[in-house]
Amino acid sequence: MTRPHSPFRRRIAGAAASAIVALALAACQGASEPSGPSSSTAPSTDRTYSNDELTAALPEPTELSDLLSTEPTHESPPAGRTEPAPCADLFFAGADERAFIDAHTVGLARRDYSGSRGGMMGLTVRSFDQPVPAEWFDRAGTAVAECTSFTKIDPNRTSTWETKLLGTDPLGDRSFSVRLVGGADVDPGGEASEVDLVRAGKGHTLILVNYAVGPASERIPDLAERAVIQVLNGLQRADS
Asked: Most C-beta atoms within 10 A of its C-beta, which of 11, 111, 115, 238?
């Protein structure tokens, strides 16, 4: 029997997505070698992009799914922390990463999407005046193996998550993906949410996707991966 859509569906997805965005998540399942992608996903590796160029590269909802629409972009809450502390490397949220982002970001664009049958996706693209540090992906890969379960402590919420490998094709120069399962402690009914995280670096540009679904949501297959591909295509158009 199909479960009716409930207000909790959007509440849990929105809470999970907003909390994850706060740490500028960069999750992973393992380092990928430079993928040598086809021209359809090969923007310039050494240039930077302005806010306008990055915004133009963000896909419209219908380019990803007929079940998506955009919604006002949510402000990220203050960043929290993780226990064990090294699990913050899943999110590119260590002190070095935050300092680099503050010092070297030259372009930024964000868009939030909501599903007509539940779920929420946040898409962030940053351009830096230096290449995306490769060590971020290396540290995130190590954290996946060490953080099969961790606690995320935010200003207004504490939740426990488990990591599950999420297979995606290589994207850009380096890419990682992981699925976080948990957050049941923010739902009085004890039902868990899932957050798919897909990250890709290409030259000076970092693409971050957080796709959250609650227990009553209908998952859109491969949505986060397709969002990354569409951004890479959009950056290539900016190069032409």
From this structure: 115
CA dihedral (179, 62, 235, 20) in degrees, to 10, reads: -30
| HSE-up of residue 240 (Cα within 13 Å, Cβ side) | 11
Write out pLDDT tens, residues 175-194: 988 898 986 654 445 566 88
Q: How far apart are CA 92 and CA 37, in angstroms?
A: 24
Instruction: Give Cβ neighbours of residue 188 (< 8 Å, ≥ 6 apart).
Output: none
CA angle 83, 148, 194 (to 5 degrees): 95
Tens-digit pLDDT profile for residues 33-57: 333 333 344 566 689 999 999 999 9
Q: How many separate domains does the chain show?
A: 1
Question: To the nearest 10°, the Cα dihedral for 60, 209, 219, 9?
Answer: -100
**Position 183 in a domain:** yes
Q: pLDDT class for 97, splitting at 50, 70, 90? A: confident
DSSP letters, 105-121, are EEEEEEEEEEETTS-EE
Average pLDDT for 225-238: 95
Structural domain containing residue 177: 7-239
Provide the whole-model pTM.
0.81
Q: What is the CATH number of the domain that holds 68?
A: 3.40.1000.70
Nearest to 179 by CA among 128, 144, 215: 144
Residue from 141, 180, 184 nearest 163 by CA: 180
Residue 183 near residue 114 (C-beta atoms within 8 A): no
